[in-house]
Amino acid sequence: xxxxxxxxxxxxxxxxxxxxxxxxxxxxxxxxxxxxxxxxxxxxxxxxxxxxxxxxxxxxxxxxxxxxxxxxxxxxxxxxxxxxxxxxxxxxxxxxxxxxxxxxxxxxxxxxxxxxxxxxxxxxxxxxxxxxxxxxxxxxxxxxxxxxxxxxxxxxxxxxxxxxxxxxxxxxxxxxxxxxxxxxxxxxxxxxxxxxxxxxxxxxxxxxxxxxx
Length: 213
Prior knowledge:
One of its GO terms (molecular function) is cytoskeletal motor activity. It comes from Serilophus lunatus. The chain is an alpha+beta fold. The protein has a domain at 43-176: PH-domain like (Roll). It has 5 helices and 12 strands. The protein has helices at 2-20, 23-39, 46-49, 66-71, 156-167; strands spanning 77-86, 93-101, 104-109, 112-118, 124-128, 134-138, 149-152, 173-176, 179-185, 188-194, 202-204, 210-212.
């Protein structure tokens, strides 16, 4: 009888908890479950991020240039965050916005759309096992795409989680060690090397590789 009462009590407690969860809290928990599946035991800094709630967005729609809003009119904007984008040739750092809608990811420069990636064509998302915020969005080899997108995000766990959930491609996220290959365009590839040092930095080394410390 005692064992049966314990089970009934536990079921009742779980039921009361579930009924009391707000829609906002439910979304937060769903995102944290996905983040755990992707990063737990794989990327440095994940444990410290667990108790930090994910924000709905880092920038409001009003912070986006009206010309950009016109270009993506009709798409429901879900998440916006400032990022640093590295050129595929030369690896020059440029300030950009990453705008995630219901169906696509956009890399935005002020009033210009620099690149659009439809979730249906997304080939993969890569990040390192270290504490850097580098994210590589892998795109298909076609004339519509210039090449893979190399970004640096301040809130990497949040950004990657929202991207893979919106794209419904959680299984395509890879946490790599040492290095990764990315497509530059026209059949060419580049290499990114991850290493540990005293100060965080991203630079082009003497071998022409993008090195992330």
